[in-house]
Amino acid sequence: MRLLSFHHNGKQALGLRLGDEVVDLTAVGLPATLDELLRGGPDAMAAAMKAGNTARTRLSLSDIDWLPPVQSPSKAIAVGLNYVDHAAESKFEAPTYPVLFHRFPSSWVGHKQPIVRPHVSTQFDYEGELLVVIGKAGRYIGKDDALNHVAGYSVFNDGSIRDYQFKSAQWMMGKNFDRSGSFGPEFVSADELPSGATGLRLQTRLNGTVLQDANTRDMIFDVATLVSVCSEPFALQPGDIIIAGTPSGVGLARKPQVFMKAGDVCEVEIEGVGLLSNPVVDGD
């Protein structure tokens, strides 16, 4: 099942994508956000599928404005240095425990929406990543049970302001400029992908040039491990997200360095999950 959040005729809605069309689930009485639908548990997800199969009114994808699939997660946990080659190019040892930081919802936009290079920096970098959506609450989740808590997956561009990221040992500043990252295009339920979303090709392209090309099987900490570790300090809730880390090929590590600028288009594509595309603009 592929669900997306969107605006149409000035209203926010949740939709089920069927090919190039979308069924407006909100119009038939279901919640307006994926967050709320996930909190309804398996029965709500089943109702979404049933409504999608029976609803006659559909919209064209070309007529909607895309929103991030999840609107207000209680927690958005990002993972750093989760591929050996990326840790090496960043001059770090491969971690033995996940490097975790927080990413705020104000720092990302949806599919086809512009991401913003802040005027205070010229080091606006791309990072293509797999995103994990929690569907079942839990704390101290064992690794063997962790995938039962995953509702599905999406794509994330962890846009990073590099000079601010490394002003201190904490990465928060460089990872949370408003509208610097993106999330989408849609939510793909876990049953449509391999277990743990492993074995999927991930590419990041800037203006059509491939700059990152990797596979999710190469993550140091797989999805089950990340869910288990993240559930130790706090209970994970439906709608929480884990942004699972980027592979090598980031602009900071290239010689010469490659950073995003106004007029560029950045695409992140993960096999079976989708293609997330965003134009780049300059901030005020």
UniProtKB/TrEMBL annotation:
Matches recorded under InterPro entries? FAH, Fumarylacetoacetase-like_C, Fumarylacetoacetase_C_sf
- Give the GO molecular function terms: hydrolase activity; isomerase activity; metal ion binding
List, in alphabetical order, the GO biological process terms annotated in this UniProt record. Answer: carboxylic acid metabolic process
SUPFAM superfamilies per record:
FAH (SSF56529)
Q: Which cofactor does it need?
A: Mg(2+)
- Sorted alphabetically, which keywords does the UniProt record give? Hydrolase, Metal-binding
Per the UniProt entry, the signal peptide is: none
Specify the Fumarylacetoacetase-like C-terminal domain's residue ranges.
Answer: 76-281
> Its family?
Belongs to the FAH family.
Annotated PANTHER family: FUMARYLACETOACETATE HYDROLASE DOMAIN-CONTAINING PROTEIN 2A, FUMARYLACETOACETATE HYDROLASE DOMAIN-CONTAINING PROTEIN 2A-RELATED
According to UniProt, the name of this protein is FAA hydrolase family protein
- From which organism does this entry originate? Variovorax gossypii
